[in-house]
Design goal:
Blueprint: H1 2-11, H2 18-30, H3 45-57, H4 81-93, H5 99-108, H6 116-125, H7 138-159
Length: about 160
C-alpha cells in the first residue's frame, strides 16, 4: 500500500501532462517519507518510475508492487565464486597478515575485490565445516596460489 500511495497520482484516473508529471516526480523525490521497514527517508526518481512501470506491467494490480526477495541474498556480489575461493585459500596460507596488507597484495596481483573486509565478514558467516574451516578444491588453485606465494615473497623482499 505504501508504494501505491506514492504512485497513485501517476496511475490514477487523472491524466497528467508531461510537465505536470515531471514536477510531481520532483516533489515526491524531494519529500521526506517514513518508509516501512527502512531507515531511509527519501525515494529516488528512478525508484518511483520503476514502481509505476511494475504497476502497469502487473495489470494495474497492487500485487505487482510487493517487494521481491533478492535472489542473490547471502552471496557476495562483487566477487565471483572462483576468485572468492582463491582469496580464502590465500588467507588460510597467510593467516597472520592483516586484511589491509592482504588487500594490497591482491591489488598487486590485479585480482583484488572491491571490499575485502566485507568479503571476509560474509565468509566467516558461512563457514562450511563445524571445525570452522573452508573446503577448497585444491586442484583448481594449486598453480595460482604457488604463483601468488612467489609474488608475495618478491613483494616482501622489495619492501626490505
Amino acid at each position: 500500500m505504501f508504494r501505491y500511495g506514492i504512485i497513485a497520482d501517476f496511475v490514477g484516473a487523472t491524466r497528467l501532462d508531461r510537465g505536470e508529471r515531471e514536477t510531481l516526480l520532483q516533489e515526491k523525490c524531494a519529500r521526506k517519507w517514513s518508509i516501512p521497514y527502512s531507515p531511509r527517508t527519501h525515494i529516488s526518481r528512478s525508484t518511483i518510475v520503476r514502481w509505476i512501470q511494475k504497476y502497469h506491467q502487473g495489470g494495474c494490480k497492487l500485487e505487482a508492487l510487493t517487494p521481491q526477495d533478492r535472489t542473490d541474498q547471502g552471496h557476495v556480489r562483487a566477487i565471483d565464486e572462483e576468485t572468492g575461493l582463491a582469496i580464502l585459500q590465500l588467507r588460510q596460507e597467510l593467516p597472520k597478515i592483516p586484511v589491509p596488507e592482504l588487500n594490497r597484495i591482491l591489488h598487486c596481483l590485479c585480482s583484488s575485490p572491491e571490499n575485502l573486509t566485507d568479503f571476509f565478514r560474509k565468509a566467516v558467516r558461512r563457514r562450511v565445516n563445524k571445525d570452522r574451516s573452508v573446503v577448497v578444491d585444491k586442484r583448481l588453485f594449486e598453480a595460482p596460489v604457488a604463483l601468488i606465494g612467489k609474488r608475495v615473497e618478491l613483494l616482501c623482499h622489495e619492501q626490505t
